[in-house]
């Protein structure tokens, strides 16, 4: 086996690990339910790497890249505010703890930032904004080939741009943030689904079937995503905008809805229309593990 890289995407429900070769080809993939808390997260991550070692028959002694939600300090490999993982205390030295356990170097990055590097790989474009529409709404910025984290790690936090003074109270303490309109959780409260169909799929299917209320909810959601893209595009003007996160499992129907909303917003503005934001939109291929791939690339 030639040079390989190991990447982990640690999420609240599952931890996904993979091994990629230099061409970005996925050689092995493992997923495990994430145990919460500092010990649980480290134990789960270590178990995933051991499973990858078993699957490939390789010692995998190179750097392990980790993407994780929350506030991450990459130079120190520390994380905090990953509340859904039970990491809500002080800075936790994840890189050091996992590195000692596995006997390898571990680098840690915010999961959306890691995913934006994965998006670079899958799109073959190195100037892009990756918009993650998951439980929350956040963007990763790779500008002219470089990841922009921001001085306080807050670059791309468009989910907390307030757009509606009369809107819902956001968990960040502001009112009417984009995240309260254009996120998986906003969509789930606007269109609660029962059974096994995720709310996004249920909503888009109902809208497709002609349900007027579903059409209105879908269009409001798409307009919110379009507003986030407009803010990002006018701030940094990326060549490509990539939609990812759980809601992006909708695939092409999400791209079409958001492109339509972008065109509607540009209808009265020759300036906005000339920027062709709709034409820059792409969606991560279904089931492509974009954050884990990006995490693996951190080790290079
Ligand atoms: Zn907010």
Automatic annotation (TrEMBL):
Its signal peptide is none
> What Gene3D superfamilies has UniProt attached to this entry?
3.30.420.40
Q: One matching Pfam family, short form?
A: ROK
What family is this protein classified in?
Answer: Belongs to the ROK (NagC/XylR) family.
- Protein's recorded name: ROK family protein
């Amino acid at each position: 086996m030639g040079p390989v890289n190991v990447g982990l995407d640690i999420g609240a429900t599952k931890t996904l690990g993979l091994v990629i070769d230099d061409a970005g080809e996925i050689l092995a993939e493992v997923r495990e339910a994430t145990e919460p808390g500092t010990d649980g997260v480290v134990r789960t991550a270590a178990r995933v790497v051991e499973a990858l070692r078993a699957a490939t028959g390789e010692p995998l002694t190179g750097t392990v890249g980790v993407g994780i939600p929350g506030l991450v300090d990459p130079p120190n490999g520390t994380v905090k505010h990953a509340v859904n993982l039970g990491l809500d205390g002080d800075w936790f030295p994840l890189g050091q703890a996992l590195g000692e356990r596995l006997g390898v170097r571990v680098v840690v990055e915010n999961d959306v930032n890691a995913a934006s590097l994965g998006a670079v790989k899958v799109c073959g474009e190195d100037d892009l904004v990756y918009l993650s529409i998951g439980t929350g709404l956040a963007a990763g910025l790779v500008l002219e080939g470089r990841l922009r984290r921001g001085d306080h790690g807050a670059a791309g936090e468009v989910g907390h741009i307030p757009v509606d003074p009369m809107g819902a109270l956001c968990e960040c303490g502001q009112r009417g943030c984009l995240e309260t309109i254009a996120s998986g959780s906003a969509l789930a409260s606007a269109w609660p689904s029962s059974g096994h169909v995720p709310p996004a799929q249920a909503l888009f299917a109902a809208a497709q079937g002609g349900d007027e209320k579903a059409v209105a909810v879908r269009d409001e959601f798409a307009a919110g995503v379009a507003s986030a893209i407009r803010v990002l595009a006018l701030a940094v003007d990326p060549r490509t905008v990539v939609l990812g996160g759980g809601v992006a499992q909708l695939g092409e129907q999400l791209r079409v809805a958001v492109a339509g909303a972008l065109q509607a917003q540009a209808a009265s503005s020759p300036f906005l229309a000339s920027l062709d934001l709709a034409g820059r939109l792409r969606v991560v291929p279904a089931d492509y593990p974009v954050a884990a791939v990006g995490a693996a690339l951190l080790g290079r």
